[in-house]
Design goal:
The complex is a heterodimer of chains A (about 210) and B (about 475). With about 210 residues, chain A is α/β, with parallel strands linked by helices. Chain A folds into 2 domains: about 15-180, Aconitase, domain 4 (Alpha-Beta Barrel), CATH 3.20.19; about 180-210, no CATH class. Chain A has 8 helices and 7 strands. A 7-stranded mixed beta sheet of chain A has the order 4-3-2-1-5-6-7. In chain A, strand 3, helix 4 and strand 4 (about 120-125) form a beta-alpha-beta unit. In chain A, helix 3 crosses helix 4. The longest helix of chain A is centred in the middle third of the chain and has 13 residues, at about 125-140. In chain A, about 50% of the residues are buried. By secondary structure, chain B is an alpha/beta fold. Chain B has 2 domains: about 5-275, Aconitase, domain 3 (2-Layer Sandwich), CATH 3.30.499; about 285-470, Aconitase, domain 3 (2-Layer Sandwich), CATH 3.30.499. Helices cover about 30% and strands about 15% of the residues of chain B. In chain B, a hairpin with a 7-residue loop joins strand 13 and strand 14. Chain B is globular and about 55 Å long. The chains are: A alpha/beta (about 210), B alpha/beta (about 475). The interface between A and B is large, with 68 and 83 residues.
């Protein structure tokens, strides 16, 4: 369970241990099986994170290994978070302690759900992600320093320092570093613009303006 | 960059503002909600002291958690009961219409909105469910969202979105008899991959698409998300308008003609520019079945499970994982693989035409020994229409169970689920590990007619052989 506060305000860095969950196309049913969605709050979702995979691996799942405990940075491969749109998936990861994700690519809805929670999903090419994963494996429990401007991750261990460039599109990056990733207030504030848009939609006026 | 497509036109029309982060604030014309992804959004709205901006553009139903055997309240599962009670309270408090159990209009959210005429061409449609892409069948821009975005739409009837690229999926030719929209979309996903559509909207076009009914178009767009495309759509045409005419929320009277004129003008024009185009030939597509653990791991029913050598190098790890999980041998034929459970239903294939296609196979035949087979209509209206034409009796006589409407065994949020290592033949949309409720359960996705063929055969079977031969001899004279 997470000991650190949930994301709030501007997000420019993330520091912590890494946990590597390798494999492509890891879907949100695997991140949190559907039975954990029977709830009206997100409060207790941490216990469900990767529940079926963890049971199958009987203690050997990355989320159960001793050197992953307290990890804040999740490292994955391609198309992570595909499938169901359930925000319960990033919520469960966040409540377990994850504050940033590095991967080769992300499913769009998952990426957006993470952004709405203040969890940056940064990408890198295949070779770079494999290198990060290998470095984490070679230095169990080492602390990573992740920056958004410029997007990069560094690992310091045994007196050595490794660094890799990452990618994050300008829009989401600006939203995170400015603290405007939780944008409900901003959307609501555009009252006049919302009225103007509604006013030009033919289907809201019985097609009288079509 | 795309230009002149339906996607471009609808996007431009719904653009509220450009946001400082670079995203677009997009107006949402229709917001659909259900019991699973809305309670936390309503709670967040309360925390912010906000109300629902357009309760009249928000429509609710209950689908994921409802039992399909008895729907009497309170539900046996107290968690399910709490979720429905919370939805009822939230809708009552905010003045949102809820199509609840027994209303005659309840059902899977992606089945009821079209059948009520709520989904219309040119709208933006959002719902906290990835299969919202279904509504693109009408020429709407429809996509799934997470709960934080449900909160945003409740509060502002808008969303922060980035514009997608547009890929035209041009399908020439004609589908063979026994080959349906489900086979077509599984074939597309198999070809382009489950990641192929990330960053794209899919426009489905061409003669084979124009020949599809609205219900088939819904099946097609429903699974765009399984190919990675957050939305898929079909340009509105005479088929669309004929489907909509007379539905409760469709425009009527003078407004109808104006609506049709506007809808017609939305279609991608001859000068439309696409970011990408891929061409398929419908005639070459066989009934298609998934063999693995992603919807892209699909083959024609007359093909064998691909070997590693036949698999792209970066798809090999997940192919190996699939061989292990599914307990299938590379190179083995899929036809003849025994199944345990046969499920017909879901937002992909729980509509009347789906049930008709399955009933045509089941009629006069019997579910094979040892197989549990059941049919779950997508909505109360689908159930009533199917019962009115006797499809329930056809299924029951063949040994299928006939259930109440809901999401059922598509996902494990209600009592319908696989047990242990069972294999299902399923008309649903996802064959992910554990998807149908057992951590080791196995799912073979296929069309409803193919599920019926598997049920009466006891194993994966080519439905083309069953529909080409008469399913039943004339009824024998009743002994005196």
């Amino acid at each position: 369970m997470s000991a650190t506060p949930f994301p709030a305000g501007p997000i420019q860095h993330c520091r912590g241990r890494a946990v590597v969950v390798p494999g492509d196309d890891i879907d949100t049913d695997r991140i949190i099986p559907a039975r954990y969605l029977k709830c009206v709050t997100f409060d207790d979702l941490a216990e469900g994170v990767f529940a079926d995979d963890r049971r199958e691996r009987a203690g050997d799942h990355p989320f159960d290994r001793a050197d992953s405990q307290g990890a804040a940075i999740l490292v994955v491969n391609r198309n992570f978070g595909c499938g169901s749109s359930r925000e319960h998936a990033p919520q469960a990861l966040m409540r377990w302690g994850i504050r940033a994700v590095i991967g080769e690519s992300f499913a769009e809805i998952f990426f957006g759900n993470c952004l709405a929670l203040g969890i940056p999903c940064l990408s890198a090419d295949h070779a770079t992600v494999l290198a990060v994963q290998a470095a984490v494996a070679a230095h169990p429990g080492a602390v990573l320093q992740l920056d958004l401007e410029p997007p990069q991750v560094m690992l310091e261990a045994d007196g050595e320092r490794f660094g890799w460039p990452l990618e994050l599109a300008a829009g989401p990056r600006r939203m995170l570093v400015s603290g405007e990733w939780n944008g409900t207030a901003q959307l609501v504030a555009h009252d006049a613009e919302l009225r103007a848009t509604a006013g030009r939609l033919p289907y809201l006026a019985a097609f009288a303006t079509a | 960059m795309s230009a002149g497509t339906l996607y471009d036109k609808v996007w431009e029309l719904h653009r509220v503002a450009d946001l400082p982060g670079g995203a677009t604030q997009l107006f949402i014309g229709l917001h659909l909600i259900h019991e699973v992804t809305s309670p936390q959004a309503f709670a967040a709205l309360d925390d912010l002291g906000l109300s629902v901006r357009h309760p009249e553009r928000t429509v609710a139903t209950v689908d994921h958690i409802v039992p399909t055997t008895s729907q009497a309240r309170p539900f046996a599962d107290p968690l399910a009961e709490e979720m429905l009670a919370t939805l009822e309270a939230n809708c009552a408090r905010h003045g949102i219409t809820l199509h609840g159990l027994g209303s005659g209009r309840q059902g899977i959210v992606h089945v009821i909105a079209p059948e009520l005429g709520l989904t219309q061409p040119g709208m933006t449609v959002a719902c906290g469910d990835s299969h919202t892409s279904t509504h693109g069948a009408f020429g709407a821009i429809a996509f799934g969202i997470g709960t934080s975005q449900v909160r945003d739409v409740l509060a502002s009837q808008s969303l922060a979105m980035g514009k997608l690229k547009v890929r035209r999926i041009l399908v020439e030719g004609t589908l063979q008899s026994g080959v349906y929209a489900k086979d077509l979309v599984l074939h597309v996903i198999r070809t382009l991959g489950v990641k192929g559509g990330v960053g794209y909207a899919y426009e489905f076009a061409g003669p084979a698409i124009e020949a599809l009914s609205m219900e088939e178009r819904m099946t097609l767009c429903n699974m765009a998300i399984e190919g990675g495309a957050r939305c898929g759509y079909v340009n509105p045409d005479a088929v669309t308008f004929a489907y909509l005419k007379g539905r409760p929320h469709a425009p009527a009277g003078e407004a109808w003609e104006r609506a049709v004129a506007w809808w017609s003008a939305l279609a991608s024009g001859p000068d439309a520019v696409f970011d990408d185009e891929v061409v398929f030939d419908a005639a070459t597509i066989a009934p298609t079945v998934t063999w693995g653990i992603t919807p892209g791991q699909a083959i024609g029913v007359d093909e064998a499970v691909p070997t590693l050598e036949q698999t792209d190098s970066d798809e090999r790890p997940i192919a190996e994982e699939a061989y292990r999980y599914m307990d299938l041998r590379p190179g083995a034929p899929i036809e003849g693989l025994p199944v345990d459970v046969c499920f017909i239903g879901s937002c992909t294939n729980g509509r009347l035409s789906d049930l008709r296609a399955a009933a045509a196979v089941a009629r006069g035949r019997q579910v094979a020994a040892g197989i549990k087979a059941f049919v779950v209509p997508g909505s109360e209206q689908v159930a009533a229409a199917a019962e009115a034409e006797g499809l329930d009796a056809v299924f029951r006589e063949a040994g299928f169970e006939w259930r109440e409407p809901g999401c059922s065994m598509c996902l494990a949020m209600n009592p319908d689920r696989l047990e242990g290592r069972q294999i299902s033949a399923s008309s649903s949309n996802r064959n992910f590990k554990g998807r149908q409720g057992s951590a080791s359960g196995r799912t073979l996705l296929m069309s409803p007619a193919m599920v019926a063929a598997a049920a009466v055969s006891g194993h994966v079977a080519d439905v083309r052989r069953l529909i080409d031969t008469p399913s039943s001899p004339e009824p024998a004279p009743t002994p005196a």
